[in-house]
């Protein structure tokens, strides 16, 4: 991975040059700008991973620069330095989403620690800088760049495609993207979830029926295969299709004709079939639950969507994508790190739900780490202890320490704690400490 790039902004030329040398010695690439406006120009022209700026500067100060960066380079961490290290400055800075705050004269260790912390989330997020979109499929990761390239090529053919991937990875979005990029784009895109329709209804849903074909068939009904004529039919959760219906679907695929239930007539169809499954379809074939001949018909080309945890570069990009669709807010750097560190078992669907949850619970502009954690199952923020619990914990830690210093000798421990022996015994009993 390339070195992280830091832009130091300070109108004190000597100070910023010396600081750049110090930061360079930590192994980062550093540039300097002596005015906020010049910093913005550099940010337009080059990629930086972090901005370290002085608060008090002539013309445009550090806060104004930070506001501008937030608007134009969302997510770029900014660390503020000030010689007037007052608490109100620090509070204002962190409330507004500043990644860190350093007081001049700058302590080398504090500088190194702050830069490392602020860059951690950023570096995971920026392995691939370029974002892309393929007909509604948004991505930034290298894996998805390659996949989009493959989709663009296969969209031009008429081949049937099997899309596999965990639930919520974007199989339906992908199917829709293939349709929109294909020559069938002018025709309909029809989707059916084979697992959600009761088995006895699925045949008539797919192939249609004529009036009187079965009890309740009071009029002719067009099936989805015919509705998708000159377009694309997306068969979601294909592994759930009952075996007897698989035979009928195979005939439709082979003969390119469909016969509604109860009808004597077949109609020609021109449909591209895309199917998807979150289960391993080849395993279903081996277990005798899915026909091998149908498998090969549907799987002329296969596409596998990686789980979100396997493409972490997409997490910040998609999180911001969903956020900006809903509200004019942004994530605190620690909130983004929490999103990056989560495993996302429900993939992009879960990410989108979590962002919606965070937006609903955030009144201000900045989404905090605690709000993100509260929205993630099993990641609830640690509850802040009440004063009584805190006192009790302190007392317990204190007694343990005293006992350990006195090697378990209660008389000596009581003396050290400046308590009489019976009081000290009571404390040991209260905390269940054997004596
Ligand atoms: N790359 C992406 N860019 C933008 N939105 C996406 C992307 N991938 C998925 N989504 C969104 O995530 C949600 C789930 O996507 P989709 O329904 O396509 O997943 P799926 O794999 O078909 O899920 P399931 O297996 O549960 O049917 C949708 O709201 C979709 O818009």
UniProtKB/TrEMBL annotation:
The modification 4-aspartylphosphate is found at residue 54. InterPro entries: AAA+_ATPase (IPR003593), AAA_lid_NorR (IPR058031), CheY-like_superfamily (IPR011006), Homeodomain-like_sf (IPR009057), P-loop_NTPase (IPR027417), Sig_transdc_resp-reg_receiver (IPR001789), Sigma_54_int (IPR002078), Sigma_54_int_dom_CS (IPR025944). SMART domains: AAA, REC. Residues 137-360 form the Sigma-54 factor interaction domain. It comes from the Bacteria. Keywords: ATP-binding, Nucleotide-binding, Phosphoprotein, Transcription, Transcription regulation. Residues 5-119 form the Response regulatory domain. This is Sigma-54-dependent transcriptional regulator. It comes from Pseudoalteromonas fenneropenaei.
């Amino acid at each position: 991975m390339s070195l992280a790039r830091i832009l130091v902004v300070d109108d004190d030329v000597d100070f910023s040059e010396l600081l750049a040398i110090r930061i360079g010695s930590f192994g980062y690439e550093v540039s300097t700008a002596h005015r906020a406006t010049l910093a913005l120009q550099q940010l337009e022209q080059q990629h930086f991973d972090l901005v370290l700026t002085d608060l008090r500067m002539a013309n445009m100060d550090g806060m104004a620069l930070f506001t501008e960066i937030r608007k134009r380079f969302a997510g770029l961490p900014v660390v503020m330095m000030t010689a007037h290290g007052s608490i109100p400055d620090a509070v204002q800075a962190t409330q507004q989403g500043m990644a860190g705050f350093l007081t001049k004269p700058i302590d080398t260790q504090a500088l190194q620690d702050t830069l490392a912390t602020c860059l951690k989330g950023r570096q995971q997020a920026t392995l691939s800088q370029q974002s892309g979109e393929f007909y509604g499929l948004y991505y930034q990761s290298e894996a998805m760049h390659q996949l989009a390239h493959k989709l663009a090529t296969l969209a031009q053919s008429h081949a049937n495609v099997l899309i596999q991937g965990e639930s919520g990875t974007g199989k339906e979005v992908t199917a829709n993207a293939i349709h929109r990029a294909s020559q069938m784009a002018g025709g309909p895109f029809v989707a059916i979830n084979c697992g959600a329709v009761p088995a006895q209804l699925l045949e008539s849903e797919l192939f249609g029926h004529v009036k009187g074909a079965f009890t309740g068939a009071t009029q002719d009904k067009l099936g989805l295969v015919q509705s998708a004529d000159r377009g694309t039919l997306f068969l979601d959760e294909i592994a759930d299709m009952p075996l007897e219906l698989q035979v009928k679907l195979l005939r439709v695929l082979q003969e390119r004709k469909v016969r509604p239930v109860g009808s004597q007539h077949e109609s020609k169809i021109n449909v591209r079939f895309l199917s998807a499954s979150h289960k391993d379809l080849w395993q279903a074939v081996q277990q005798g639950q899915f026909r091998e001949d149908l498998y090969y018909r549907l799987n002329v080309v296969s596409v596998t969507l990686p789980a979100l945890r396997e493409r972490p570069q997409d997490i910040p990009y998609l999180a911001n994508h969903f956020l900006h669709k809903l509200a004019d807010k942004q994530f605190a750097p620690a909130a983004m790190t929490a999103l990056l560190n989560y495993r996302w078992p429900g993939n992009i669907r879960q990410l989108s739900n979590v962002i919606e949850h965070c937006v609903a619970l955030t009144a201000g502009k900045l989404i905090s780490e605690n709000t993100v954690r509260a929205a993630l199952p099993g990641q609830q923020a640690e509850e802040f202890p009440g004063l009584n619990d805190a006192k009790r914990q302190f007392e317990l830690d204190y007694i343990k320490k005293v006992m350990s210093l006195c090697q378990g000798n209660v008389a000596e421990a009581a003396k050290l704690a400046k308590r009489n022996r019976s009081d000290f015994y009571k404390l040991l009993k209260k905390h269940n400490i054997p004596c």
